[in-house]
Request: fold
Amino acid sequence: MSQQSLEAFGAYRKALELFDLVVTDMEAIRNIPLCYRLISQQVASADSICANIEEGHGRMSRAEYRRFLDFARGSARETRGRYLRMKHWLPPDTVSERVRLLDEIIGILTSTISRLNSEPVGTIGEEESMYEVSLDPRPSPLAPRPSTLAPRPPLVVAHRGLSGVCPENTLPAFAAAVALGVDEIELDLWASRDGELVVCHDPEVDRTSNGHGLICDLDWPAIRALDAGSWHAPEWADVPFCRFEDVLEHCGGRVVINVHVKEPGSDGLVLRRTRELAAAHGLLKDIYIAGEKDVLEWAARVAPDVARCCLAGFDCGATMLDAALEHGCTRVQFWNPHLTPADIERAHANGILCNLFFGDRPDTPDEAVRLCRLGIDAVLTNWANTVLPVLRELRAKANNGC
Reply:
């Protein structure tokens, strides 16, 4: 693989950026005796991220490439943990920004490793390395931005990010999904007590963190301090919750965002803030709001220029379509198996796109293919790394008239 493709790999570019920052950070604390050993360890682990990516890039074997990327990921996790322990000497903003950058690196590496795991064992050809160009989760000002009005079905929607591999609804999960090349990501929003839009599936933080309580009863600083990663696996320790604006900053312009609003909030607060934040980032056309009847009613009132997706009446396709037409939705999100070919045909006849909610299990690509052949436009999945290659093949065949 060429030097050009190495430099185009998002994780490598970010690792180089990180190394420069580490050197600067360590220089600032070099006169503190307690930090002498930590400084040398931190420089070494940051260097190890770059070095292992470089070494893996030079290997022609997929297995070897994957092995060295896994080494790089381990070094990134080590660097991340050490920054958290350096909170006693480094400014809080510095620690937060470095951890965020490392979460991006870990997310890209995780996505790449997952992709390599799903591909046949063998050598990597020069032409195959070009997929790395798209692995940067940060938006490029020159990149064409997708539109909810012009999809290329069948689309893959990463449900709560790459949630089968990473902790759900966290920045690493979203970064990994974007790096993998999904068409959309899906997330869930609740308003905290101080009015921040927190990304979390449940109304409380208990299941996916070491905290307790309803999001609406907690302020954002307290939520941000929780560990939202360990419940998924020990190596994800101290991954924090994120806000909607954090996702827009990191993923906006690279994917369409399916925003599942659980409840509208007082006087439609959640819908108002969703629209305000998307508008501030220039992303009104790159998001759509999914919700039940109360959410759709508020969305039509306070965010009429944001596309809507109907979740009302999920246990009956015909009922859901009636609700979608009533509330001016451009999408419905069917719940498998509560749909029929007639439901899909009726939706398309009314200009409505059809999402499919696939569930919380390792999804079966054959089932996704079957339903997409019936006309489903987008499949939500926790396992985009499994489903994406299969639906890409289906898309290619459709484009070739097969």
